[in-house]
Design a protein that fits this description.
Number of helices: 6
Radius of gyration: 21 Å
Order of helices and strands: HHEHEHEHEHE
Distance between the termini: 47 Å
Strand content: 15-25%
Low-confidence stretches: 1-13
Structural class: alpha/beta
Strand order of the largest sheet: 4-3-2-1-5
CATH superfamily: DsrEFH-like
Number of domains: 1
CATH topology: Hypothetical Protein Ychn, Chain: A
């Protein structure tokens, strides 16, 4: 395809702008104002307990984006994803084939020491999992709730769900 034809085909896919677009919006206040913000030194703990793959994917996406916005600097930025409840089986070695793409993504985020996964040992045991049953990039803590509180009170982490 010639460059001119490519440009025309791309432009044809874009939404039309102008009066018809503003009428379709029906916004008497106009469009939102962008705030250009920079972020650094953020410490975040994600409380992750859902058994829905979409919810875990959302947490991974948000954690990754926060890391990027903070420069992905392990000296300047820390993100801990605390796993408990129905999120635990995703990280079980025996479920790897079923959740391979999700686990490859999670493990890749743990490289670089910015994003870390911690799992509730009590909840894992109640579901029949021992530390050796869980993927090696996950660290086990005695209790998810106590770890979340400790991260907030002792290390100044912000809570996210």
């Amino acid at each position: 395809m010639k460059p001119a034809a490519l440009i025309v085909s791309v432009l044809a896919m874009l939404p039309a702008t102008g009066q018809a677009d503003s009428e379709a919006r029906q916004s008497p206040w106009g469009g939102a104002t962008e705030i250009h913000q920079s972020y650094s030194k953020q410490k975040v703990v994600f409380d992750t307990f859902s058994g829905a793959a979409e919810k875990l994917t959302s947490v991974l996406d948000r954690a990754s984006y926060i890391s990027v916005l903070n420069g992905a600097d392990p000296f300047d930025n820390r993100i801990v994803i605390v796993l408990h409840g129905d999120a635990i089986p995703f990280f079980a070695a025996r479920n790897y084939a079923r959740h391979k793409e999700l686990m490859l993504r999670a493990q890749s985020l743990s490289v670089g020491d910015v994003i870390e996964f911690r799992m509730c040992m009590i909840a894992a045991r109640m579901q029949g999992f021992r530390p050796e049953d869980i993927h090696g990039f996950v660290k086990m803590v005695p209790m998810a709730d106590a770890e979340i509180v400790r991260l907030q009170q002792e290390e100044g982490f912000a809570y996210m769900q």
